[in-house]
Amino acid sequence: MNRMNGKAYGDSNVYSGIRLTEAPPSPSLDTTPPPSDPSPSDSSDNISSSRLGEEVRRVLNKFFVTRLAETILNDGEDNQRRSRQEGNQREGGYQETGSTKTETKDGVANSSSHAAMIDELRRKCSDAEKDLLDRVVDLTNVPERYSDVCVDETVIKSLERVTHIGVTRREQFELGILQANRIGGAMLYGPPGTGKTLLAQAVAKQCKFSMLAITSGDIFQKAWGEDEKVIRAAFSLSRKLHPCIMFIDEADGIFSARRTDDKKHIRGMISEFLSEWDGASGPKGKKNPLVMLASNRPFDIDQAILRRTPMRICLDIPTPQLRERILEVMLRDETLEDITVQEIAKLTRLYTGSDLRSLCVSAAIHCIEEQQPDADTGCYPASRKLYRRHFKAALKEIRATPPNRLLARELLEFRKRQG
Ligand SMILES: Nc1ncnc2c1ncn2[C@@H]1O[C@H](COP(=O)(O)OP(=O)(O)OP(=O)(O)O)[C@@H](O)[C@H]1O
Ligand SMILES: [Mg+2]
Q1: Cα(372) to centroid(ligand 2), Å
Q2: pLDDT tens digit sequence for 191-217
Q3: What's the CA gap between 154 and 319, in Å, rounded?
Q4: Cβ 341 vs Cβ 308: under 8 Å
Q5: Are residues 324 and 291 in the same domain?
Q6: Helix ranges restricted to H, 256-340
Q7: How far is the CA of 267 from the centre of ligand 1 (A)?
Q8: I need a labelling partner for 19 at 20 to 30 A (CA). Which of 7, 125, 260, 282 fits?
Q9: Domain range spanning residue 106?
Q10: CATH number of residue 325's parent domain
Q11: Ligand 1-lining residues (CB < 6 angstroms)
């Protein structure tokens, strides 16, 4: 079936590499982790079946459905929890890290080389492209290792594969069956703070791609009719950055099918985006970016956009096992004295990765607040040890982001429909 015409988006997906039938993941996320890809580089598996994409989605669906359902079921408890949250200082805001760093093509990872690359690029850019140069993400501080991004390994493998094949083997998509089944993009969706941006950045960094992050502000801030110009500039800039991931955060805000603004205007903007995405400009679209969308509300996104993202990955609220992994990563360079990450993981039900990070920061701050300067030297200790009491204090301040029952239900329904 032609993917563009079919009602099931996944019918002709061409990403591959996951052996889905060998050991399907347990329907309960809290017990068994899903299998990892046993041979991600086995080329005989590549693009082997038109049904593979559909199966990827079905397995991923099964995997995540449980957590979303749990969120809905636990809403009563969460309401009580929410009412206890007055005084919660989470919104006091710990600084997001790693959101604006990149790596140069030669692999030299530091912010000054990123700045030099931008300066070089500036000379070749049109005015409209120059306006978007500060959207080229500096990936310097993004984790070097995928293991720092605690999501199911099959998710990472399949996303990396799509990214790589979709951009570096673009010429293959000008021939035969693949002509009508290009890999145009992928979508990461799920509740806030579950690592969508982090994962997209990690994939870009690992694949040594550039990343251009576009938001609704970039597109809609301009005068009437200017948004189509911004879209053309975004695509032409990303071609100059080739290979490049164009990351569109909060994609529902741009491509919403439910927008009440001028429908004709929005349709024009979406049409322009689709035509650029399909490679209307550039040499047969060869250097076009891989478009990666991120959204908390994928069900609001226009169908024509959804059709071009055959790979959809749900990042859910972490399981206890994933919480342990996230905490291990975050507390890797800290010394824990009378508490373990396993214990902290048990105490943090429904905490997202972002909540866990705030919790760890809060515990460390409680620790340094306790520290006294040395009586002789007047110097504060250069190191620290985290105790149970620090986490206890942090747990009082940092609660799980209150799950949004309606959002969880809509996400669950979306996921079921995709399966
Ligand atoms: N799965 C995870 N593994 C490791 N760290 C995580 C994970 N999820 C979240 N984090 C931590 O939380 C931070 C915020 O996550 P991120 O911004 O990627 O979430 P998001 O899903 O994009 O949220 P939003 O929907 O609000 O944009 C990350 O920088 C990271 O420190
Ligand atoms: Mg994000």
Answers
A1: 38
A2: 999 999 999 999 888 888 899 999 888
A3: 16
A4: no
A5: no
A6: 263-277, 303-307, 320-330
A7: 31
A8: 7
A9: 96-316+405-418
A10: 1.10.8.60
A11: 97-98, 149-151, 192-198, 294, 296, 326, 329, 353-354, 357
